[in-house]
Structures are given as C-alpha cells and as structure tokens.
C-alpha cells in the first residue's frame, strides 16, 4: 500500500476541533475530579449516608434536624452523647466516596460547623477503613451554644486509600455538626481539582471544555436539573441536588464557577450547556419560559460580565474578578424532540444574541441531513454505535450540507459489546471516525469523546475515557487514541491519497509549526487483522518536511478486545520508536500492525 502526501497546500483545521466533554456522571466530579473527600457534607442527601455511627445505642443517638445556620440547606446532624468517658469516643464517621485517599506527610484542610449543649471536646481523626489505625487526629473544645466554624489542618502520619474521617466526643452532651469538608492541601493549580485526574486532562491538550452535561443538565424532572445559581457562592451555602438521571447526590462543590475555572486552568474554551426548560420527563411551556431565559442571561453575565455587574460581582466575590470568556453556549442537551424545545428555542436564541451578539449558540436539533428549523451557529450531534459503524462513520459528514450552521460532535464513542469497559477495538473505530472528522473539519469545528470519567465504584455508563478509584486512574485505549490527534487543532490538513487493496485502512496527514520548526504527522488506522506494508511518499514542494528521521508511535495489542485496568493500566498505550532514514531509500516503508493506530512524525 502507498500513502502519497502532498506536503504543499492543504486546508487549515479549526483551532478548536478536539476538546473534552465533562459530565457529572459516574461520580466523575463528586468523588472524582473534585477533590472534596467528604460525601454528603451537609447531611442534605435525604439520609445521612454514607455517614455512619461510631458507638452503640447505649452510648450515642444520631438524628438530623433543621437547625443549621445555612438558609438554603437547613439540615444539621444531631449527636447525643449518652456516656461520660466513653472509651475511644462516640460519634460519626464519613468514608468519603468509597474510601478517602490519605497520604503520609500530606496535609488536609478540615472545615466544619459545630455547636453543643454544653462544653465538649470534639476529636477529628483520619483513620484507616476499620477505624483502628489513626493517621491524624486533633481535639478542639466546642464551648458554644451558637454555631462556630472550625478550620483545622490535619497532617497524615500514615497512608490509606480507604481512609475515613471521624468526629467523636466522649462526654455527655448534645452536639450538632454541619457542612463538614476535608480537602487535600495540594490540588491542581490550587483550585480544588484532584491532581492526577486533572493531569490526565492536561495530556489531552483540550481546546474546549463542554460542561456540565449531558442529561445531568436536564434532570429526569426539572427540580433535579443542574441550575447554576444553586451552585455558586460559598460552598457551605449551596443546597446541593440529587442528580436523578445518574442517580446520586452532589453537594455542588463543583459548581458553575469551578467549571469555568477548570476550563481556564486547562487553557480550554468553556462551552456551557444550560437547561432549556426541558428535562427528560417535564418541559416548560412558552408562557412560563422567561425565568429560564433570564437564568441563561444571568449565567452569561456571571461568566463574562464586568466585576461591577450584578452577577459579575458575585464571580469577583468568589475570587475571580476578571471575566471568563464564554464564546459558545448550548441551549439544552438532546432536547430537540422533547416538548416545547423548538417553540422556546427562538426566545433563548434571540435574547442571547441581543445581549451577547458574539456568543455562538448551539442547537440540539440535527442539521446534518436537513436544514435546522431555527437559526444557530452550531448543531449538536451525538453518536454511540458499534466499532464497525464507527469505522464507516469516517464518511458520516462527507455529504452533510455545507451551507448553514457548523457541526459540534459533542458526544461520540463506540459502546456495547465492542467496547466493554474500553477496548482497543473501540479506540480503532473512533480513531477512524476522527480521521473523517479532520477531513470534514470545514463543517465539523468541535468534537469530544463521552463520557470522560468514571469512578470504578459507580460505573453508570460504559465505557469512559478515564476510570479511577480513590487513588489511581488509567486511560482506556479511547483516551490514548485522542492523544494521536492533539496536534491537529489549528494544523494544516494535507491532501493525501491512499492506494491500497487493504480492506480497512484509513489515513490522514497534517503539518504544524512551533516557533522553530515545521512538523508533519501521518496517522494510519488499520481496522483489519492483517498487517499492511505501507510506503509513505512525501510529494510536493515543501522541502522543510522531507524526512531524515521519523518518530513512529503505535498503539496495538495482541487481542483487539484487550483493555487497560487499574491493575494493568499500561497494557495498551502508544509506544514510540525512532526510525532513521536508510541510505538510498527515498520513501518511508513501515509495517502497519493488525488492529493498530500509528502516527509517524517527520
Ligand atoms: O454521555 C452519556 C449520556 O449520553 C449523556 O448524558 C447524554 O447527553 C447522552 O445520551
């Protein structure tokens, strides 16, 4: 087989083409990227779970009441200590999200609110999962009948990735606790994101961050939708909410500002998906849509408005006086055919364009086959399918209309038995699709894999790019597949021709510059189980990319259904080899392994 690459000419790929989509699904944020270690910090989740009692019914009684000092989350925990000198103390513990990761020598900031019927010593400890080994401990005197805020640094003297936080007392008294938070000292850029998981995102060099969902934005019913105003301000004052689509409570420490901050910290353009007055089972009619429109406008003012504006001033008060720069918003998620969406859409669209003419608007309706029923800058396209379909998807947008809105493939993934928890086969299908996206990037300007994260203890959706537990994480082949495309944003797509009889081979070529040099990358996906001898011929007039040496990077595995795992995180990863040009050989001759994705950098 021969790939002929014309090194001159070509077409510029949009700067924004490949980014990421973060959804609060699978405990991706709460118990994941958001580094808060306490689950159900305000006891608002409908029960006190996962908090549990230390002591028995003769020594302690646990209940909740609505005496909190926080107006929007009134529930507090009441602990009646029934014994004096209770051995080891009685009270409650929180195991976090399937265990807290506590590391020896590291510091953790504990904040909680407490009041008591009479002066009592309260001991806060970090222990192993059994509670028997103490990793850190401190005792404070709660002397006041009024709520007081306690802020304490705990330094770990030991390590456990299944640790818990205990709050105990040992003298007869009634104590109330609320808004208990434990944060590691070191988080990504000091902004509360779990370091190892954030670094996985950095390694994808995402051009944009779409957030916060997905169906998470919609909710099963509207009261469970993500409404940004409930997620801003001091975290202890946020009410939290039950995400009824993915079926878990979030304290909303990872709120609207934190999403914007994450985008800024990753150098990614924020793309905000807001609720369009539509949930999966309930929709707002045009007569009552105005508050939702106002919420969207206020959300834009919070992000983009000056610190002197009403909502911009709240952003400034939260520590970010400079405006963020939202340039693109989506009116809802997958709502096109749900009741009232199309009726309400123009109201949102017109209000946004009037107040923020430069902000681009994404419609949930599909414009790939026929014109949209309303104006939009982008249409949102989601595709989940078997691997062979994805290989063919390389041509999905070849015939799509070029006049009208651009396409945003905001969710794509191979799913089902071809993918399991994240197979090589899935990654190959997706890689072929992304080569097609590069080819169609005159139309498709944005694309992101979905979902991004899963806590392995709560896999609501399979597969996901980055599975993790409390202390470790790994990339699936679909995660590493995306790394083959990180140089594509803003690069030049070269004209190339593949001459082959191999049945399932697809290739593309790009060039890009840094301040010193010009680089050329050829990518080849072999979806077949036979190896291919490939000759890469660089043609055209651009002599700066003629080859002397090439870095060949390949991702493959013995079995196409192989997966990475926490125990074997690097079974399928890109492997790099340097190839020197053999004397007298003009063109690069390489063997493309069966079931592989390969790049060659010149
Ligand atoms: O990515 C998982 C889900 O798939 C998203 O929440 C939704 O938009 C889609 O149906």
Summary, kept brief:
This protein is of the alpha/beta class. It contains 9 helices and 34 strands.
Account of the protein in words:
The protein is α/β, with parallel strands linked by helices. 15% of the residues lie in helices and 33% in strands. It contains 9 helices and 34 strands. An 8-stranded parallel β-sheet has the order 3-15-18-19-20-21-22-23. A 7-stranded antiparallel β-sheet has the order 2-26-28-29-34-31-32, covered by helices on one side. Strands 4, 7, 8, 10, 11 and 13 form a 6-stranded antiparallel β-sheet that branches. Strand 22, helix 8 (424-439) and strand 23 (444-449) form a beta-alpha-beta unit. Helix 4 (290-304) packs across helix 5 (310-317) and helix 8 (424-439) packs parallel to helix 9 (477-483). The protein starts with a strand and ends with a strand. It binds alpha-L-arabinofuranose. Residues 23, 25, 213-215, 333-334, 382, 411, 450-451, 461 line the site of alpha-L-arabinofuranose (AHR).
Characteristics of this structure?
alpha/beta, 9 helices, 33% strand, globular, binds alpha-L-arabinofuranose
- Total helices: the number is 9
Main structural class: alpha/beta
In whole angstroms, the N-to-C terminal distance is: 19 Å
| Strand arrangement, major sheet | 3-15-18-19-20-21-22-23
The total of beta strands comes to 34
Q: Can you give the mean pLDDT?
A: 96
Roughly how many Å is the radius of gyration?
Answer: 27 Å
Strand content: 25-35%
Which percent bin holds the helix content?
A: 10-25%
What small molecules are bound in this structure? alpha-L-arabinofuranose
The rough form would be described as globular
């Amino acid at each position: 087989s021969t790939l002929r690459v014309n090194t001159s000419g070509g077409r510029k790929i949009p700067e924004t083409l490949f980014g990421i989509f973060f959804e609060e699904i699978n405990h991706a944020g709460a118990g994941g990227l958001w580094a808060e270690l306490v689950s159900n910090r305000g006891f608002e989740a409908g029960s006190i779970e996962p908090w549990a009692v230390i002591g028995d019914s003769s020594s302690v009684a646990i209940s909740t009441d609505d005496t909190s000092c926080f107006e929007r989350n009134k529930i507090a925990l009441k602990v009646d200590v029934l014994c004096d000198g209770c051995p080891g103390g009685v009270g409650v513990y929180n195991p976090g999200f399937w265990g807290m990761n506590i590391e020896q020598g590291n510091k953790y900031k504990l904040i909680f609110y407490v009041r008591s019927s009479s002066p009592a010593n309260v001991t806060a400890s970090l222990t192993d999962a059994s509670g028997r080994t103490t990793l850190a401990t401190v005792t404070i005197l709660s002397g006041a009948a009024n709520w007081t805020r306690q802020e304490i640094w705990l330094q770990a003297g030991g390590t456990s990735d299944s640790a818990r936080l205990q709050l105990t007392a040992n003298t007869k008294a009634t104590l109330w606790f609320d808004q208990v938070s434990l944060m590691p000292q070191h988080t990504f850029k000091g902004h509360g994101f779990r370091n190892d998981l954030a670094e996985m995102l950095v390694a994808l060099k995402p051009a944009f961050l779409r957030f916060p969902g997905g169906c998470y934005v919609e909710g099963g019913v509207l009261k469970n939708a993500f409404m940004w105003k409930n997620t801003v301000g001091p975290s202890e004052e946020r009410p939290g909410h039950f995400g009824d689509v993915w079926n878990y409570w979030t304290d909303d420490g990872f709120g609207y500002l934190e999403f914007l901050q994450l985008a800024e910290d990753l150098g990614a353009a924020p793309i905000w998906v807001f609720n369009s007055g539509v949930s999966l089972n309930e929709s707002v009619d045009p007569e009552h849509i105005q508050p939702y429109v106002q919420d969207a406008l206020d959300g834009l003012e919070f992000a983009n408005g000056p610190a002197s504006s009403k909502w911009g001033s709240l952003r400034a008060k939260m520590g970010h006086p400079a405006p963020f720069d939202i340039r693109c918003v989506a009116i809802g998620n997958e709502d096109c055919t749900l009741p009232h969406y199309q009726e309400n859409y123009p109201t949102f669209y017109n209000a946004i364009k009037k107040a923020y003419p430069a902000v681009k608007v994404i419609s949930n309706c599909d414009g790939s086959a026929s014109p949209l029923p309303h104006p939009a800058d982008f249409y949102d396209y989601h595709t989940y399918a078997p691997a062979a379909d994805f290989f063919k998807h390389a041509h999905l947008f070849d015939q799509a209309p070029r006049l009208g809105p651009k396409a945003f493939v905001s969710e794509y993934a191979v799913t089902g038995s071809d993918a399991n928890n994240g197979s090589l086969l899935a990654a190959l299908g997706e890689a072929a699709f992304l080569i097609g996206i590069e080819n169609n990037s005159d139309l498709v300007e944005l694309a992101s894999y979905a979902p991004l994260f899963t806590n392995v203890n709560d896999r609501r959706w399979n597969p996901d790019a980055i599975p993790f537990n409390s202390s470790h994480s790994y990339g699936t082949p679909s995660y590493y597949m995306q790394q083959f495309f990180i140089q594509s944003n803003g690069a030049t797509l070269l004209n190339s021709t593949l001459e082959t009889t191999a049945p399932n081979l697809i290739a593309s070529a790009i060039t890009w510059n840094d301040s010193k040099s010009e680089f050329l990358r050829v990518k080849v996906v072999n979806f077949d189980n036979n190896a291919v001898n490939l000759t890469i011929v660089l043609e055209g007039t651009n002599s700066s990319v003629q080859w002397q040496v090439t870095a060949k990077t390949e991702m493959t595995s013995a079995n196409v259904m192989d997966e990475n795992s926490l125990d074997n995180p690097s079974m399928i990863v890109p492997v790099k080899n340097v190839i020197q040009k053999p004397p007298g050989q003009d063109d690069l001759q390489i063997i493309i392994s069966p079931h592989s994705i390969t790049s060659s950098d010149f």
